[in-house]
Amino acid sequence: MSIRFNIFGVAILFALVGQSHAAMRQYSADADTSHWEVDKTAQLSCTLNHEIPYYGEAIFSVMASKNKDLTFNLDMVVRPETYDFSGLQSVPPVWRAGVPARDIGRMQLLKKFDGELDNRMSWEMLSELEKGYFPTFYYKDWQNSQDKIAVALSSVNFQQAYWAFLQCRDNLLPYSFEDISFTVMNYKKNSSELTKSSRKRLDMIGEYLNNDPNIETIYIAAYTDSHGGRWTNMELSRKRAKAIKDYMTGKGVEADRIVTEGFGEKRHVAPNDNEIGRNRNRRVVIQISRP
C-alpha cells in the first residue's frame, strides 16, 4: 500500500515513534480529501461521519434519549487481532510550530471489534477538532510488531458539518425507543377517557411513532376493574383498546400493524376491594416491537 502523509501535524506524528528502527504508518485525509458529513433519521438519531482513506471511518453518533449522550466509533476495515490499548492525542497542525501534542486519553482495542469511546472523550475530541487540531490514535500494529499505526481525524472542512450535527442533536426527541416500547396507562372510573398523565404519555408515544418508520407491531391490551358487570367490562375494555388504536392510526401508523385485545375483568394486578387497587386494574398495556 502506498502511504500519503498529511502535511498537517506530520512532524508530531513521527515524534510518536519511540524507537528509531520502527516504522510509522499514518492514515488521515489530506486537505483535498477531508470530508465531514451529517446523517440523520428524523428526530431519532444523528451521526457525524469522516472517512479516513485506506483505513475506515470515524463516526460520532447520538440517539434520541433524555441525556442525548454522544458516542464515538472508529470503524476499521481491518479490525484488531488482539486485545490492547490505543493512545489518543490532540495533534496541532503544522502551522502551530512549537505547540506540543496533548494526551487526551486512550481507547481500548478489543479483538475483532471496532474502537469505541464514551460521551466525555467523544466531546473532547470534537472540541479539539473545533479548535483546528487533529485527534490522533496511535498503537502497535497487531500484524507487524516492528510498526506503529497513527490514525488522525482531520479538522479541515469540519466546522460547517459540526454545526449541522449540533443542530440535529438539539432537535432529537428527549426519549428513546426503550422508553416507549412498554407502557401501562390508566383510565378514569367507568370511562374510556385516559387520566391526564396517561394522555401525556400517549402523546409522547404518538410523537415517537411519527418519527420511526421501522415499527413492526403494536400490541394493545385493555383491562377493567371488577365493578360494572363482566359483559359490560369486556365491552368497555375493547372500546378502550380501539380508542388507542384509532389514535395511533391517526398518527399515520398502519392499522394492520396494530393488534388489540380487551380482557375485561381478567388478569387483575391488584385487589379490587379498595380504590387504589381498582385504579391499577383499569389499565391499557401497550407493547411496541421493531424488527
CATH-defined fold name of the largest domain: Immunoglobulin-like
SSE order: HEEEEEEEEHEEHHEHEHEHE
The amount of beta strand, in percent, is 25-35%
Give me the secondary-structure category.
alpha+beta
Distance between the termini: 40 Å
Using the alpha-carbon principal axes, give the shape: elongated
Record the strand order, biggest sheet. 1-10-9-6-7
Q: Which regions are unreliable across 5 or more consecutive residues at pLDDT < 50?
A: 1-20
Which percent bin holds the helix content? 25-40%
Going by CATH, the architecture of the largest domain would be Sandwich
The averaged pLDDT comes out at: 87
Please tally the β strands and state the result: 14
Return Rg in Å: 27 Å
CATH top level label of the largest domain: Mainly Beta
Number of domains: 2
Number of helices: 7
Largest sheet: 5 strands, mixed
Describe the structure.
The chain is α+β, with helices and mostly antiparallel strands and 291 residues long. It has 2 domains: 10-170, Immunoglobulin-like (Sandwich); 177-289, 2-Layer Sandwich (60s Ribosomal Protein L30, Chain: A), CATH 3.30.1330. Helices cover 27% and strands 31% of the residues. The protein contains 7 helices and 14 strands. It has helices spanning 10-15, 119-130, 159-170, 177-180, 196-211, 230-250, 275-281, and strands at 23-27, 36-41, 45-52, 56-63, 70-76, 84-91, 102-109, 115-117, 134-140, 147-152, 182-186, 217-223, 258-262, 283-289. The strands form 3 sheets. Strands 1-10-9-6-7 form a 5-stranded mixed β-sheet. The chain has a 5-stranded antiparallel β-sheet with strand order 2-3-4-5-8. Helix 6 links the parallel strand 12 and strand 13. The model is unreliable at 1-20 (pLDDT under 50). Residues 1-22 form the signal peptide.
